[in-house]
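Reopening: structure tokens for the DAU complex, inputs below.
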Amino acid sequence: MKGKTILVTGGCGFIGSNFIYHVLSARPTWRILNFDALTYSGNLVNFKELSSESASRHTFVHGDIRYGNVVDQLFADHEVDGIIHFAAESHVDRSILGPEAFVDTNVVGTFRILDASLRHWQRRGKPKDFRFVHVSTDEVYGSLGSEGFFREETPYDPSSPYSASKAASDHFVKAYFRTYGLPTIVTNCSNNYGPYQFPEKLIPLIILNILEAKALPIYGDGKNIRDWLYVIDHCNALVKVLEDGKPGESYNIGGEAERENIQVVHLLCDLLDARLRREGRGPSRRLIQFVMDRPGHDRRYAIDAGKLRSELGWSPKHSFEAGLELTVDWYLAHPNWIASVQSGEYRRWIDLNYESRDRNDLATS
Ligand code: NAD
Ligand code: DAU
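Re-run output (same inputs, fresh job):
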């Protein structure tokens, strides 16, 4: 892929931004075309710290994957050698309160970008090294009991409108390989954390609430388990998949770091208390509040990433504790970024999601 142009959809979101920083530094001949609609979770300010050399290989195009004419224009204006498709509505709780946007972006939007990619690939004479990497989630597999792991052949069994929409998009991506030969690959990754994550997700939400001495909302009994992966380890896996992954295949990506939500929140409380040393406040653990559970809340996720490890030689480099320290330190060092994303839309979401939980009437709000 030397000197190639990679189209990154959703490059202004959490994982997309980290991916762009990572790739521009790890692959000094690549150019990135970043196509993003700048929804509430996409932020151009994320690229303030790009070096001028990296910035010269980063082109931003403002556009929405739901519109076929806009996507066609993108491919008419630019030659693209590979695609990493991140753009999506990504938050499970939002999908419960407003599922339609998830169908529009994650299913219809993915179809539009996939279909335009097929025509682009055909027009260019079907280059063998072209890749369409679809960034999906372990949530498509549903929930595990206390035993076992998700493998690539685990049947899909999504629980939320978010995971159902991602599952549908995965099926379209695979169908385009089988039917038309478009060299697509699906990745199914576990929970990411790290810099630039929008503070609606558990880890950044808890960090910000501890900083502001607000309640720390824990859904249900706090014993749901997620498998946490530091975002840069995910980005590294995606580069490997883009360069060496086999078309038509799926690859599971995970951090080998299963933790109960309550353990994650305890760690964050203790880490921030040690960093901040605030006098007269008492331990942050006193802010923990158990609130109404997420409907359809998957109990446990755990990934078997053996295929990626044995076929492409990938493994996570950050332990959960080390990654969490890096993450906390990044948020402490970026108060301006935090202020820039805590817009009216952010406050509206916090009121909608957590006030209705207090009233125990989430399903009807
Ligand atoms: P995010 O919400 O932080 O970012 C999504 C980005 O997509 C934003 O920049 C947004 O502006 C853009 N976008 C949304 N709708 C769009 C549209 N219609 N057209 C163009 N751009 C649009 O999400 P994230 O956490 O960075 O997740 C990125 C991808 O990775 C998603 O597909 C998600 O399903 C997948 N994923 C996320 C995780 C995780 O833990 N965050 C884990 C596994 C897989
Ligand atoms: O597994 C991969 C998925 O991880 C991605 O596909 C999604 O895009 C990403 O958002 C994430 O989904 P989760 O629902 O697991 O992440 P979230 O941070 O929303 O929640 C993590 C756990 O914490 C989950 O069990 C719900 C719980 N939770 C979450 C919030 C926001 C709480 O207890 N309280 C909260 O306020």
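The mean pLDDT is 96. The longest strand covers residues 131-137. Marking as resolved unless the reporter disagrees.
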